[in-house]
Amino acid sequence: MAVVDQPKPSVDAPIEDVLTASGLTGETLTLRVLKGVPGGDTAEVAYQVPVVAGMVILDAVHYVQHNLDTDLACRWNCKAAKCGSCSAEVNGHPVLMCKTRVDDLPAGPVTVHPLKSFPLIKDLVTDVSRNYEVNREIPPFTAAPDDGTPWRIPQQDIDRLYEFRKCIECFLCQDVCHILRSHDYSDRFYGPRFFVRVASLEMHPKDVLDRRDQTRDQGGLGYCNITKCCTEVCPEHIHITDNAIIPLKERVADVHWDPVRFVGRKLFGRNAD
Amino acid sequence: MSTQVTKVSPASLASAPHSGPGPIERILDSLPWWALPATVVTVLGLFGLYSIWTAFLTGGINQSGSYLSPFYSPTIWSTGPVSPALWVLGSPLLFRATCYYYRKAYYRSFFWDPPSCAVGELRHRKYRGETAFPLFLNNLHRFLFYLVLIVTGFLWYDVYLAFWAPDGHVQLGLGTGIMLVNVILLSGYTFGCHSWRHLVGGGLDCYSKSRLGQARYRAWQWVTVLNQRHPLWAWCSMFSVVITDVYIHLLRAGIVIDPHIVF
After folding, report:
1. With contact defined as beta carbons under 8 Å apart, do A199 and B205 qualify?
2. Which residue of A has its CA nearest to B231?
3. How many angstroms separate the Cα of B58 from the Cα of each of A87, B11, B76, B83, B253?
4. What is the pTM of this model?
5. Could you say which of B114, B128, B136 has the minimum Cβ distance to residue A182?
């Protein structure tokens, strides 16, 4: 992969108001951004960015967009770590660019690459549509038809589901999961984000569907070998492995790996679960 | 009614104090990706070698006075041709081998599947994970939990016996303390198990309408507290087993004398 020099500034405008107002540290950040399109050449382009106190990587990318390379493609929206749009790989680590401070990174050039597990569209923008297809495969929340409303659900029944609701669908967990990233099993493996979704449905006190076999067969739950990278990269600090994937594995074990329950089901029917 | 307005400039916000990663995090971040797998391989490898040595190569049961090594508890078929450790070591070792935490540790460190997050894998063979033999046997973790529960009960009984000197008096010795700490750490590891967390209450969808729902909810909360530090319990209990065994070996060999008080 070639590293090319910073292009000439394409815009003569001064540095963005907020960045130049004050807070300049006098330091310069070398930002090496992977640029390219599918089928074409991809190369790291090095940009020199003046560092502002409190600067995050997304600030630096915006500086490049506004002042050095207006052609640079980057997806972002809220800049508050809540929309999950600006996912990228900074120095090889999947992160949200808006949550990654420059002063937290080791000294030296900083590389910014697109998410590796998804098809590239342009520069830092990838095609994450496969995730939405997986999402459609999961049967939605389904209450019993005779379960009249309004529902009164005790707090203890719903407490553990709040954690799953924090997911912002940044898909960093999908990106870092080696089953999708290294083995490219996107056709047979849902991925951590969707195990979180299945867990939130399976544990819901009002949901009556049983998604365990589907999660094991179509979802490929057995491929997960619990290496916890998904948990490590989650910007919302959801305990994906401990609170979603392992409980799902245990629920599948209830059906397929538990002779005691098997005998119980034979003797007492389905309710033995 | 007046409202006081404080103006905050973007610059002051940008220069607000920011702690960032702590010193330990910075050191860990600065380590190369292979540092953790290499450490795990070394420590688990040494533990494996030590287990073989103490269980099969030292001759006889590692017992000194009232102190019995956890590698030999419960002692069954002590007169047989093979070490009695053979009959009791299986379930604790397999319990650890199928433990969700240790699975992470050895998949990363021994199998390099993957060696670290966002690091490429060295082996490019067909990946099957835990869908095929032998790794799907990891799903039997909960049954090994039942067996380890029995062993843990014996270890608590051993601690009780360690409080009694051979002459029938109550004793309080360094060995008693080591054995007590060991069994506490082992219990913390055992009762923080993910399978136990599921069995005790995690498998329920609706606590409020289940039989014993309130009790199981409380139990699930307690197990969750232990489970959140499961890796720490795992490592500490592993080291404590070795320390306990080494101490009893030293007593047996007469290299150290157990400081104790007899009541």
Report:
1. no
2. A242
3. 56, 69, 17, 9, 11
4. 0.89
5. B114
